[in-house]
Structure prediction request, 363 residues.
Amino acid sequence: MPIDFSPERWENIRTVYAKWWAGELERPIIPVWLRGKDPGREMPATPLLSQQTCTDLSLSPEDIIDRIDYELSTLKYLGDAYPIFNMDCFGPGVLAAMMGARLDNSSGRVWFFGPKDVPITDIHFEFDSENQWFKRISDIYAAAMERWQGLVLMGMTDLGGNLDVLSTFRPSEKLLMDLYDHPEEVKCLTWEAHEAWHQAYSALNAILQPVNPGYSDWSLIYSDRPCYIQQCDFSYMISPKMFEEFIKPELAATSGKLERSFYHLDGIGQIAHLDSLLEIETLNGVQWIPGDGKPDCANWPELYQKINAAGKRIQIINGGFAAIDAVIEQVGTSNGIQYQAMLSTIDQEQEIRVKLGKYGIEN
Prediction:
């Protein structure tokens, strides 16, 4: 059986998410992907595109898309789910590779390494449209648009952002010292990376649109307008004062250029920056990641109440239906809440349909 979706269901996705973005959807967004549907054909020999396989340039873009098509054909889409492929398979912060860093996946996961250890004063950033990784991602996107004609959404690759990209070329321990010793150079490189980021984002969207049925990324949040989840994991290591000086201006500028944006608040070390983030008027929402060994998303009421009070949307990343119910109770509304990705198996379909029905979600 082919991918179990239709143009009519895409119209419903657009309508539902448009209401959610506008603050008019009086229920949470809950996408559920069920594994185990019969795809109706044999699995292709081509391995699935992943961080482990992304450097195998012998695989044709068409064969890569055919394998993804097979995987998506094994899924059933419930609630607010839709067919999407997450293009984080080239690693977190692939913009660094597009600007000359080495992409290494020998461990099975992608890591980036600067071409050589040089002083920060000798580093400069420029987007290269002839870079092999940009061209490889572009070719895969083009093959996807040709194959699916808008049935499947290809997410934006994980470009990375802010000082995280710079820390590829200037390791964190040195970059931390540069904040004191070379603050102007850090700021200059931040804005060079900012320009390169937006050039890459625009160039890739020029391939995806208008065929791609919307915009998304590794967060899996759907938008019918340009959107991205911003981040700066480096900020875990710095003070709120330094966040205000070195990180917030670029985040605000990117958020202002995009029509919609979220922030990836990763770990308790970033909670100190939340008040500052919430001051960015054009930032639409926050995705909170408690971190390994920490309580799941049902257990952070003060944090979610603060995000909601600032008029921002909330993405929950774990805890299932119990976490959704807990957060709704904590903030006093289901408006503006989205669960990132609920994965289950097809034998659980009826049980999940009943649970979705309690929120008024039917399909």
The first helix runs from residue 7 to 21.
